[in-house]
Design brief:
Distance between the termini: 38 Å
Number of strands: 0
Shape: globular
Number of helices: 3
Strand content: under 5%
Order of helices and strands: HHH
Helix content: over 70%
Length: 93
């Protein structure tokens, strides 16, 4: 699979948005001012969320034909929250 520059930029935007939102929601995630960490959390979350959305056949209809759709953002956000939760559980163990 080849990744072109526009695709990479879209992935980084999705990662940054979902990672930041998940960190803020979970309070105790990476917090403000941690763009790189939030982006990594969001990218890993996108993989987790994408897998779960496919596994459970969750589909959200697109309202507009844009590069970043609501399903991608929601899947990345849910995955990022799961990732932050799992990291917390493992740290306590």
């Amino acid at each position: 699979m080849t990744i072109d520059l526009p695709t990479l930029i879209v992935w980084l935007i999705i990662g940054a948005l979902s990672g930041s939102a998940a960190s803020n929601i979970m309070r105790g995630g990476s917090g403000r001012g941690r763009f790189l960490i939030n982006t990594i959390i969001g990218l890993i979350g996108a993989v987790i969320g994408g897998f779960l959305f496919q596994l459970f056949r969750i589909q959200i209809p697109a309202l507009l034909a844009i590069q970043i759709n609501a399903q991608q953002l929601l899947a990345a956000f849910v995955g990022a929250i799961i990732l932050i939760f799992l990291v917390r559980v493992l740290r306590r163990a």
